[in-house]
Amino acid sequence: MMLAIPDVLSAVEVTRVRAIIDAADWVDGNATSGGQSALAKHNVQLPEASAAAREAGDIVLDALGRTPLFVAAALPLRVYPPLFNRYGIGHAFGTHVDNAIRIRRGSDFRIRTDLSATLFLADPDSYDGGELVVEDRPGIKLPAGHMLLYPASTLHRVEPVTRGQRIASFFWVQSMIRSGDDRATLFELDTAIQSLAAERGQGDPDIIRLTNVYHNLLRRSAEL
Ligand code: NI
Q1: Does 32 score more than 90 pLDDT?
Q2: Torsion of CA 128, 133, 137, 139, to 10 degrees
Q3: On the chain, which terminus has fewer CB atoms closer than 10 Å, C or N?
Q4: Which pLDDT band, with edges at 50, 70 and 90, does 33 fall under?
Q5: Gap from CA of 186 to ligand 1 centroid (Å)
Q6: How far is the CA of 223 from the centre of ligand 1 (A)?
Q7: What is the whole-number distance in angstroms between the Cα of residue 96 and the centre of ligand 1?
Q8: In angstroms, what is the span from residue 184 Cα to ligand 1's centroid?
Q9: What percent of the chain has pLDDT over 90?
């Protein structure tokens, strides 16, 4: 499932995050890549352990926690501390694979990457190119503060930037529901229940029964 989630960060938060990261020191993006991606990757990144990455990452993590659409769609168990990258003119990231397991250096944090996320941090009018292309779908470029969630199992790439700078946060999510199909079905059920509840009210007896079904299915398949 691919999902664009609007307004994960407000305009004020985008400005705050940009102020933090724009003032920081960036390094070659291959600092975090395996051998195969290193061949395809041409960008710069904030060092993972830098104070700026942590401070800006915490703003992103707080925002995710209060974004119901993210929680409902991803059913997150763990979120990798957000990373930040920047593509200037001529930068691109060719077709690549995201590693199945990410281990954070110098810590015991490890994650199975079920979902990949890109949170856009630059106004799309401020740069050309830089679309995120997932498999053979049309390239995607979202407004600043919006986020694309997509299966980490896909081949994907970032098109070359030809004007301006594409700036984004990216990270991975391990879901409580390992199967993408099961996760999508739960999300569909949840979405239908929320839509019915908006019409009938949360106290409607059938909504309560359906909510019970949702939680029983979640209880059956969640891994914690
Ligand atoms: Ni990737």
Answers
A1: no
A2: -10
A3: C
A4: low
A5: 26
A6: 25
A7: 6
A8: 21
A9: 92
